[in-house]
Amino acid sequence: MIPLQHFLFVGATLFSLGLFAVITRKNAIQILMGIELMINASILNMAAFGKYDKVDNTGQIFGLFIIVLAAAAVAVALVIIMNLYKRAKSIDPNQTNTLRG
Amino acid sequence: MESIFTPYMLFNFALIAITAPFLAFIFSLIFKRFAAVIGIASIGLSFISSLILFIGVWKKPVLHFSFDWIQLANFKINLGFLLNDLTVIMLLLISFIALLVHIYSVEYMRKDDLKYRYFAYLSLFCFAMLGVVLADNLFLVYIFWELVGFASYLLIGFWFKKEKAVLANKKAFIMNRIGDVGFLIGLMILLTQFHTLDIDVLFGQGNLIASSFVKNDIWATPFGLMPAYWLSIAGFCFFAGAIAKSAQFPLHTWLPDAMEGPTAVSSLIHAATMVAAGVFLLLRIAPLFNQLVLTSMAAIGLFTAFMAASIAVTQTDIKKVLAFSTISQLGFMILAVGVQDNAAAIFHLVTHAFFKCLLFLAAGMVIHQLHHLKEKYQENFDDQSLEVMGGLRKLMPITFIVFVAASIALAGLPFTSGYLSKDAILVSVFEWADERGGIYWVFPLLVSITSWLTTFYIFRVVFKAFFGEFRLPQILGKTAEELKITDPNRWMTIPVIILALFCFALFFAYNPFNLESSWIYGSWNNHPHHTGMYPILVPIYINVLSFALIFMAYQAYAKNTFAFNNQASWYYKLSLNQWYFNSFYDVFLIKILMLKTKAFYWFDQKIIDGFIHLLSNIIIIISKITSWFDHYIIDGLVNGSAWLVSRLGIWLRGMHSGKLQHYFIWMLLIFLSFFIYKLII
């Protein structure tokens, strides 16, 4: 049986990679992908912790919730990116500063 | 004998007598053109009222009107009139002489621009002087006493453009001030001892003074006890007031200087009335004095009389001679009070007022006429100097006659008023010395010498001014016809002729050789003592030598058959320099005073002011420190926090770059900082 630490290690790695992508990428799609990685890292952690709750399976259920929410969030995010592209003809987040203020 | 006037009427007349001059004072200053008329009318009214008062009060019971004025706890001051024989005789004397002087002044001051002011001051003086006489308590007397001094001050300095006049009035005022302090202290002693200042209550027949006594060195009164020396101190204090006002040694030097005022003023104030106020005061409070005070009084009066007469012998200024003569005669009066012959003092006061006033007015006529010459020819000579006069007998006959009348009265020759009054004093002094014997015989000796000196100096003036040749033409190098002077007009001659009549004994006694028949003297003479040989012998031996001296003066000054050539002798110089009193005061009092003043000035300037400046500098430094603190610390704190907030804001604004990823980094950093924080704690 794979010990919990391994799950957590993989989760942390995924989260870090996702974070790195979010901070460094010059493309909104890639940032979105980074966010997905971070969400998946958290789902992995949920699933791993779910092992300790065999009665209610809270971890797995939370994982499912997060998947659904992530899907919804991605859909919304893609729309935002599309609109951004329409306005600025670019999806590089560094090119826009309309969030300022 | 019942009076035809009720007391209420008499009270009203007294009120008129005193208020008329006061109203004249005010109205003269308002209606300047009519000042002389107002002045004469008011003093005339006073004179008529005084005459009625005299008829109503003379030799009748004392009338005393008193009203509450000031009441403070158990200290009460009344306002009122005290009408007795002394009051009414003084009232009559003052208002009569003042009336004549007012009339005389019309001509004397005719050319003066500030004539209205002169008459206003003269009215103020009359008001004050009548107040002194009428007042029924010593506090009121003190007020009027000061007012008299003030009026005198104004009139001495009437020609305030003359520097000497200004100096003279200052001197008179300051010297009088010294005496006034004595008066005030005397008042306080009496107030403490008797709880009242009412003259009648204090000094009346059988009143407070009479019921107090001295036993075992304790002065006992109905109100309390005091050590006996306070009685002497009170006496000396009042005497000090009289010394200053009546120009006695050692405060006599103001009177000769006071001659800087107009001559009519010298005549009324500084010869006839005001200077007599001191004697009057002594007479009013005479029961207060004990033997010690009386003897000192006699000594000072005698010394002053002798000293002043000896000075008058050599003075060349006609008014100076008369001024010293006044001092000398006042000395006689003080001497009379000192030897307790009050009747003689009053009598001499009255007769002296007439002839001394007349002497001044006559001298004023000469000065007035010479002054006209001075202005006419624009020459510069001293119009008061005896050296420029001479031979005026033919030029100014009326002046000559009245001057001689007054002179013989002053010298005390028979048939004159002076013969009666001065010999009354001489006889009293002889009897007084006879009672005591020994060293007291100095008094009659000196008083006789003074009497002869008086005759000599006044006839020296007569012969120098009115006999011989008129010296002015020679001095100016003009002919006698050019410098023609005559008697002045009637404004001046009529008052002096009236005064001249009063130089003769007939007005004062039926028998010009019998003192006891004099109505003024008789009314006070409670103990008729002139019974021995003195009343007969004294006048004879005084007068015999007087005639010899007159003859000598005639030979020396009118005929120039011989001349006194003792100008270098010490006694001549002593006399000429007025016994060096002025120099003495200058050196020993004024110099020391000035040094002290300078020392105090230095102290003020350097120490007191220095200290204050030091304090102010310290305060300035403290305030500068406070200002710095305010500016840099308090304001700095406020400005600094504002600056900090603004810098922080600027810096924080930098965080809002609007770039998505920067926000992510910030979120990460803050998130991490929580972990770090958790790890550290």
From TrEMBL, chain A:
It is found in: Cell membrane; Membrane. It is a multi-pass membrane protein. It holds the Pfam family Oxidored_q2. GO terms for cellular component: NADH dehydrogenase complex; plasma membrane. The keyword Translocase applies. InterPro entries: NADH_UbQ_OxRdtase_chain4L/K (IPR001133), NUOK/Mnh_C1-like (IPR039428). GO terms for biological process: ATP synthesis coupled electron transport. Its EC number is 7.1.1.-. One of its GO terms (molecular function) is quinone binding. It comes from the Bacteria. It catalyses: a quinone + NADH + 5 H(+)(in) = a quinol + NAD(+) + 4 H(+)(out). The keyword Transit peptide does not apply. The chain crosses the membrane at residues 6-24, 31-49, 61-85. Keywords: Cell membrane, Membrane, NAD, Oxidoreductase, Quinone, Translocase, Transmembrane, Transmembrane helix, Transport. Belongs to the complex I subunit 4L family. NDH-1 is composed of 14 different subunits. Subunits NuoA, H, J, K, L, M, N constitute the membrane sector of the complex. NDH-1 shuttles electrons from NADH, via FMN and iron-sulfur (Fe-S) centers, to quinones in the respiratory chain. The immediate electron acceptor for the enzyme in this species is believed to be a menaquinone. Couples the redox reaction to proton translocation (for every two electrons transferred, four hydrogen ions are translocated across the cytoplasmic membrane), and thus conserves the redox energy in a proton gradient. HAMAP family: NDH1_NuoK. This is NADH-quinone oxidoreductase subunit K. The lineage of its organism: Bacteria, Pseudomonadati, Bacteroidota, Sphingobacteriia, Sphingobacteriales.
UniProtKB/TrEMBL annotation, chain B:
The keyword Membrane applies. One of its GO terms (biological process) is electron transport coupled proton transport. It is a multi-pass membrane protein. It is found in: Endomembrane system; Membrane. Pfam families: Proton_antipo_M (PF00361), Proton_antipo_N (PF00662). Keywords: Membrane, Transmembrane, Transmembrane helix. It comes from Pedobacter cryophilus. Residues 69-119 form the NADH-Ubiquinone oxidoreductase (complex I) chain 5 N-terminal domain. One of its GO terms (molecular function) is NADH dehydrogenase (ubiquinone) activity. GO terms for cellular component: endomembrane system; membrane. Residues 135-433 form the NADH:quinone oxidoreductase/Mrp antiporter transmembrane domain. This is NADH-quinone oxidoreductase subunit L. The keyword Chaperone does not apply. The chain crosses the membrane at residues 6-27, 34-58, 86-106, 118-135, 141-160, 181-203, 223-244, 265-286, 292-314, 321-339, 345-367, 398-419, 439-463, 491-513, 533-558, 607-625, 663-680.
